[in-house]
Specification:
The protein is about 45% helix and about 10% strand. It contains seven helices and six strands. The protein has helices at about 1-25, 35-40, 40-50, 70-90, 105-110, 160-175, 195-210, and strands at about 30-35, 55, 95, 115, 125-130, 135. The strands form two sheets. It has a four-stranded mixed β-sheet, covered by helices on one side.
Length: about 210
């Protein structure tokens, strides 16, 4: 129950604080949405849809899909699509399972309605996979990611996270003068939605918006 309460903080308080930071700055975001979470808190799905944010699939449950039978994983993908479409007003075009099975990417491609997935951490740029249908990989990050607040070698304060994000942006900005770069930042309502951590996020958004 205690752990459940920590997750519940995200839906009761944290996600709304993060959405407000983005609303104040007129910035869009992509929400990786777990299907079951949206079923339990459809008001979050409605808020994301009404604000025009992208909502991508994040599995039906936060499971390690290595041990899930293929037909069950396929059913979870389809159920998540339906939940997002119902709650947010449009079907997802992106997908990120996080803890994938050997079948995940094939199932996502075979479903036929996705433009991309983010189940990769291997580049600073999106890239196309060969074959049909055309499928884009937009790499995610476990470096510029607030889950590092929760690990012993991670962030002790919001200032740690802010400095990491600023350094990453500065490096990619300099390299971007010669060739394109994309920077992802991973956020969670139950983590960056806490007040002290939200201030770090706000300062980074302002720092990024100072550039063209």
């Amino acid at each position: 129950p205690s752990v459940e309460g920590m997750y519940e903080y995200g839906s009761r308080a944290g996600v709304w604080r993060i959405l407000e930071l983005f609303r104040e700055r007129a910035l869009p975001l992509t929400a990786f949405a777990v299907g079951r979470a949206l079923e339990l808190t459809p008001e979050i799905g409605r808020a994301l849809g009404e604000a025009g944010h992208e909502v991508a699939g994040h599995g039906y449950r936060w499971l390690d899909y290595r041990s899930v039978p293929e037909e069950e994983e396929e059913a979870h993908i389809r159920r998540t699509i339906a939940v997002i479409e119902q709650c947010c007003g449009r079907r997802p075009l992106g997908w990120y399972t996080g803890r994938v099975s050997p079948n995940t990417r094939r199932l996502v491609r075979e479903e036929g309605g996705f433009l991309y997935d983010s189940d990769s951490y291997n580049d600073d740029l999106p890239y196309w996979l060969p074959g049909k249908p055309p499928h884009l990989v937009i790499p995610y990050t476990l470096i510029n990611n607030d889950f590092r607040y929760l690990i012993p070698t991670g962030f002790a304060t919001g200032q740690d996270f802010l400095q990491l994000l600023k350094d990453a942006l500065d490096c990619l900005w300099l390299e971007g003068a010669r060739r394109p770069k994309v920077m992802s930042v991973g956020l969670h309502g139950r983590i960056s939605g806490h007040p002290a951590r939200a201030m770090a996020l706000a300062r980074f958004l302002d720092y990024a918006q100072e550039r063209e």
